[in-house]
């Protein structure tokens, strides 16, 4: 080396790729599953079934298991259709409210040594009839493609 040239700094070796180089022709796949949107007719059918199956479950299980059908349908199809998402939430809130009303009626009746049942059981029965009728009405509206809001519910899921 001559005295006029500065000493050269060694270049660091390039870092190897952690798993080796990608194979030729490789294109990365999108992360996570892709969800295909639902046809409008299929969305209307599933939105209607959310309400109709829940209405049948109100009768068959006295309202105790009526939340299961809307929950399953909503979890399966909420990302594929805004209509199914909306109606699933509406009916799930209705069924959960019915469940809370039923548990509250029993607790109040037991705490008041069965005297409270004179008020809470008729109220529970009336709300059960309301849930049954409004589920059928909402099912018809859902089949028409309408976003029908259900009143008199606690908004557990927004």
From TrEMBL:
The chain crosses the membrane at residues 48-77, 98-119, 125-144. Keywords: Membrane, Transmembrane, Transmembrane helix. It is a multi-pass membrane protein. Residues 7-25 have a biased composition (Pro residues). Pfam families: MamF_MmsF. Residues 1-35 are annotated as: Disordered. Its main location: membrane. It is found in: Membrane. The keyword Membrane applies. This is DUF4870 domain-containing protein.
């Amino acid at each position: 080396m001559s005295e006029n040239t500065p000493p050269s700094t060694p270049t660091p070796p390039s870092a190897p790729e952690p798993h080796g180089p990608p194979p030729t022709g490789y294109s990365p796949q999108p992360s996570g599953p892709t969800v295909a949107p639902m046809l409008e007719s299929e969305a209307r059918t599933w939105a209607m079934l959310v309400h109709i199956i829940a209405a049948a479950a109100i009768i068959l299980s006295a309202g105790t298991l009526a939340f299961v059908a809307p929950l399953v349908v909503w979890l399966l199809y909420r990302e594929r259709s805004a209509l199914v998402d909306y109606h699933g939430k509406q009916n799930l809130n209705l069924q959960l409210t019915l469940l809370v009303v039923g548990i509250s009626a029993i607790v109040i009746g037991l705490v008041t040594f069965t005297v409270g049942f004179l008020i809470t059981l008729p109220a529970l029965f009336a709300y059960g009839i309301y849930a049954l009728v409004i589920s059928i009405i909402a099912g018809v509206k859902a089949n028409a493609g309408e976003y029908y809001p259900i009143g008199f519910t606690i908004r557990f899921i927004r």
